[in-house]
């Protein structure tokens, strides 16, 4: 009898595990991945909103992408346009037909309207890595409640093809602050903050098919002259949104309903024991996988199936004297990152290297200053950012914009200004490094060095899909070269002292050593091997490179310390001043928004 009981119990446990796996496992079409969605929203003075969305995606099936808008009420969508990664502008079609073929929909877009619901549609065109930028206009976006202005809007929800990352920025001609606004975010794991007069939402993990990115925002009455009349009371909308959310009210109590019904109690008592069993199973799998990964230096996959070996340990890699990665700062940084050579705070070396490159190219000048201290004067610096600066790519242009915002109205970046800005805007700093990585992965895909696919996996009787990144053997060699180059820079004292290294090459060594966090070791050799360096180079080491490294590393470290403090409870979850988002809640009275995907 006991054997029969245990067999039945085992069968029940396996069945429930399978159900959980089916619920929790994301279902994606093969090789269809929505890597990230970046949404830039401008709230106009007339209460309308202008949207610009960028979908970075891998396309492996279907004929069209689509974005859904439900419950739009009196809001109308217009001025829809699409541009792809090649700058190709799509032709707008008045009567969009979802039944047409992929070739018939290529480079075309259109709108489907059913009452107060809309679908924005555009052809996928060629399969592979694609980037679509869509723009559109929504009227009557801002609502005029009884005593407040605001909105409760789902930028994304119930996506058929859920994105891995989401970044939303909402701005207007009137800067948003926590003094005149309240913000709450629902439906995803991440954060929401006021950043330089804008509201920024950022996810920390991949969205599921039932996730949403929803913002409830209250704005002081009279801030905007034009808002759509809405007879609702903002407090009612807030209370509705907070039900079953992670937020707490002013008394520190949960907004969640305290009424436990019979079904909730039964489900809880039945599921809890099995949930513990599943948790134990997951823990065993996690530990097993971790031990497997510890047996190799990298968990990266390379396309050459005949070469099963992992990257050798550093001590087995030969010294590499040439600067690898085509002397490209971003390629070098990405490779060092994948080689495991950089910690979070060491990422600041990339910013330092970019600034040193600007100094080398005579685009900026690093001026030593003496700042007032409590008793004695302190050594400081100033960088004039008013002059035109030529940037090499979009992420570098974004860095320049951050530096200029930190510099303030005079355009002079002075001692500690960037550190203070990073501490206050840590989410933006972190997002910038994320975009550098995404930018490089897109570049590597276009170069043919990286391929992303959804690979089917089976656990018991359930098939699910995992994202697999496959790198070429060329990139594996670059990883070995970067490791070997780091060994060369650290062991320069062992090379032939009679070898003459040109000043230009020393400058390059300093720039790339800054990315690796070992520029101080290069400077020691520089004093011995090239004593005339400070006399002939704009990158003199007495003040410029040393202080440059110090301020960039300190600034990025300050950002990560602030982020750590916020994630551990330092940010508000109840006052409406921003902080962590709620993974649930949002209410039933949101004013529009919806899902989408590919079909």
Overall description:
- This protein is of the alpha+beta class.
- The protein is 35% helix and 26% strand.
- The chain has 14 helices and 24 strands.
- It has helices at 2-24, 102-105, 234-242, 262-294, 329-338, 348-360, 394-407, 417-424, 426-447, 473-490, 503-516, 519-529, 533-536, 544-570; strands at 33-43, 49-59, 64-69, 77-84, 91-93, 108-114, 117-123, 128-138, 143-144, 149-157, 163-172, 181-186, 190-195, 198-203, 212-219, 228-229, 301-302, 366-371, 378-384, 412-414, 450-459, 462-471, 579-580, 596-598.
- The strands form five sheets. The chain has an eight-stranded mixed sheet, covered by helices on one side. The chain has a five-stranded mixed sheet with strand order 5-6-7-3-24.
- α5 (329-338) crosses α10 (473-490) and α6 runs antiparallel to α11 (503-516).
- The relative contact order is 0.15.
